[in-house]
């Protein structure tokens, strides 16, 4: 194998967060005896990543394992995405998500065609998404798209023949963000990857937000429902009477996990092991900001050892005075994003055999 | 030759359109006995590509041949643009054209400096194009520019010492688009590349649009006039009394091809072998949309075997219900864009010797 | 050493200005007996470049020497920034500066994550610069930032753990521009790099502008004060009573260089060896344009042999009719920008050992 040792590159050597919990990827790898579920990853080859329903507990864990291997530095890579071009088509601007994907592509030695703001650069002036998909067929090998319309995936897929990665479709889903959220949880507590997680390690999950209209929250809940052995209860905290939304109704009914909906965060906060918060303002101009009573700060009655997740960017719903505390898992969560996206891209583009340490091929 | 076999890269392996006619590049190559006119390509070395008058039938065919070789996958390349930086300077936004050029550069292992929207990113705030040209001298090796002002080429050329590729100058020209149009025609019917095309293969060309004010149409006609052995007649269909414009008057007079101008598309449609359509709305804010009677759909009285060309993006002047028909050559046309631009870039940057299969050097 | 000979790349071979003085980098290298002060460069390894006070005469000269080596083509490089990602985060748009940095990164075989316009792409919508810095930790290896707020450096540095290069912070500083200005002066007259410059080579420096509110001017003066052996006098020409500003008061007091402030450029113009001009309009919307009496053209009473510096972009404060004259050092100055930034990046990212001709390692 003509390898380029990752140790030579400080890219991975110091890729850790500045504050809050610092999670070692080794813990997860050791918990799995360094065996990565390559078969589960191979099922993604050539596939589009559109909706969290495409995953199951096994593939979520496998993606996290490969992300951990990549983050661990203990890996040799032979330019995994050499000769591949990824198109980042952001019709709804999001520098954070775009740069995260582009960094993942570049670190795997792929190339990037970037559309930082499809709405203003004229790409969509009157042109149909179907025609744009036809165009992308000959420009690149994989398309990473964010778009404000929930129906965008069907539209572009009319002609697109390349794998499509959904980086957020309107009020639909944001599947790779949910994978990132779960990577953070699995690094934090590797026992959660088991179907029979020890009872004392199982978590009570609190979610401040509205999965029905917030795609990142919705995708996170969708994956959480795949971990009945690890999640003992989900509490949705929302000011709305029905925050769940149609898309989750059936998965919730079919899951063995108890789900309750309450209005007052104070009521349940001291019981939660994991608190997931999102920033409404970032979901679109028509959304309100989170009400003041749902905001968390260092004075909030968080359980000892409880951790906060936030997909970022944040406004003031999670105070900066929490950054230096043990509750801050959101910085570690953000620090894992590039590795999870590398894991997804190497799998989708079928280049796992260029990454050593993945076991038999 | 230290080669990187293109077969390893799916970039070229499946770079075909989803619908309509799928054109094999092999047909053109075989028709030419796989002999590519390398001498014609070498005349482009170090040259700017500003105006279609720089080409002739021989060089148009040679560029198409190299594009076909690149599209055929039966080629080995030694990083043709290694160490070269292309600047894509789009003072008028066009994601389609910009990405097409950038994809071409990246596939030849060149690098890109991208200015997605020069009008809003401050590059042109008060600064002269001459000064911008001076700046580009030290930033890159070739400049690919689109600009709303027709005079932009003279302005930037005051100081620019690098080859300049005109990707659309106001109501001027768009020479590489015309090369792409002709690549589609030559793949579709290779006999058209001959000066003595068999009579039954010669085409009656219909053009719906106004070459005088539409640069893509103007450039296409300019190249068409270089193929008197292949084009038996050109019919311009326009609502204007004089759609031709000054720039084409002399070439039309000097050409052996008959050119007629009519107002009613229905009158001539059943006789046309090739129908070229453009979308007025994309040419600038002050242009009108095409009148409804000029629109084509699956019910239009197209001749059997007739093909439609459109430089895209389209609005509704070519209905999506034509996409699945044999008349749809516009998707194949779009699919050839990246290969034609690779062909031009490798020639201009004088790196033909890094592409195998081009005959003696 | 697995080298890629730069001679193969026309990037450096013709990287010279089209008009005005053409400066050979060899003169500076020969003046220093081709000995580059590697120790001075090594002090920059891992450092952020925020303020000109971080430099001294020795390091300014060393950076210029390495820039000259890179510009001279007489150098072999082993992909100095291989595996490194630079993030160009421009919250205040500046295509000139952004492309210059990106070109420098690409020429050293690094990779780029580009944020062409942070203000409009949503990166800053409500998100703190501290959170953005945290994000950048895991996305890249060095951050190059321009921002309209003078306090931005402190803000982003709260969490950022990667070297930060200040590409302009509000009315603060623009240190790499000042290095570029001095690179031009040292190429023009290599004797200026000495602490004991021969008297007849010492220069009277005139500066048309307001260092107190113009960051490029301020940074240039700050470096000039480090060259008391070369600069015999600085004359500030401004319509303001106190153009100096707080940041420069102490350095001026401590410097051995005489500094005078006058209002009328005509009074001193015939005595100046170097005239530094800036374009106020480019500093922000709230700044006025330079008054007509401060404008220079071919009719201005410039001393024979005097040279004009301008960080560009310019409006009309330096007339284009000066471009063809010997006074035009500003085009040569601009042509050196990419080499100086390469010099800084290779030093900061500690990859000097991948550039041959730098002496012992």
UniProtKB/TrEMBL annotation, chains A, B, C:
It comes from the Bacteria. Residues 1-20 are annotated as: Disordered. Residues 48-185 form the Aspartate/ornithine carbamoyltransferase carbamoyl-P binding domain. Pfam families: OTCace (PF00185), OTCace_N (PF02729). Residues 203-347 form the Aspartate/ornithine carbamoyltransferase Asp/Orn-binding domain. InterPro entries: Asp/Orn_carbamoyltranf_P-bd, Asp/Orn_carbamoylTrfase, Asp/Orn_carbamoylTrfase_sf, Asp_carbamoyltransf_Asp/Orn-bd. Keywords: Transferase. Belongs to the aspartate/ornithine carbamoyltransferase superfamily. This is Aspartate carbamoyltransferase. The lineage of its organism: Bacteria, Pseudomonadati, Planctomycetota, Planctomycetia, Pirellulales.
């Amino acid at each position: 194998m003509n390898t380029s040792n990752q140790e030579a590159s400080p890219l991975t050597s110091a890729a850790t967060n500045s504050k809050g919990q610092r999670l070692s990827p080794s813990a997860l790898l050791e918990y799995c005896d360094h065996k990565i579920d390559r078969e589960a990853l191979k099922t993604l080859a050539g596939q589009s990543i559109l909706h969290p329903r495409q995953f199951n507990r096994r593939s979520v864990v496998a993606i996290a394992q490969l992300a951990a291997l990549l983050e661990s530095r203990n890996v040799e890579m032979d330019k995994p995405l050499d000769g591949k071009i990824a198109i980042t088509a952001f019709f709804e601007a999001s520098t954070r998500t775009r740069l995260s994907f582009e960094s993942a592509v570049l670190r795997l030695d792929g190339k990037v065609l970037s559309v930082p703001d499809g709405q203003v650069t004229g790409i969509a002036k009157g042109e149909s998404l179907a025609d744009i998909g036809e165009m992308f067929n000959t420009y690149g090998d994989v398309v990473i798209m964010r778009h404000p319309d929930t129906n965008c995936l069907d539209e572009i897929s009319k002609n697109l023949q390349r794998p499509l990665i959904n980086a957020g479709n309107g009020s639909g889903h944001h599947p790779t963000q949910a994978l990132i959220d779960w990577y953070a949880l699995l690094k934090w507590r590797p026992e959660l990857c088991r179907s029979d997680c020890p009872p004392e390690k199982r978590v009570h999950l609190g979610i401040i937000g509205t999965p029905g209209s917030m795609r990142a929250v919705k995708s996170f809940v969708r994956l959480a429902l795949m971990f009945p052995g690890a999640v003992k209860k989900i509490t949705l905290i929302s000011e709305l009477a029905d925050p769940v939304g149609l898309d989750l109704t059936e998965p919730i009914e079919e899951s063995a996990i108890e789900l309750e909906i309450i209005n007052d965060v104070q009521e349940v906060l001291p019981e939660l092991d994991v608190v997931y918060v999102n920033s409404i303002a970032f979901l679109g101009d028509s959304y309100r900001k989170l009400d003041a009573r749902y905001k968390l700060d260092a004075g909030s009655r968080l359980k000892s050892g409880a951790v906060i997740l936030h997909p970022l960017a944040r406004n003031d719903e999670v105070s900066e005075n929490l950054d230096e505390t043990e509750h801050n898992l959101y910085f570690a969560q953000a620090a894992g994003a590039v590795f999870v996206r590398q894991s997804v891209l190497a799998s989708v583009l079928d280049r796992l055999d260029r990454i050593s340490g993945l076991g038999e091929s």
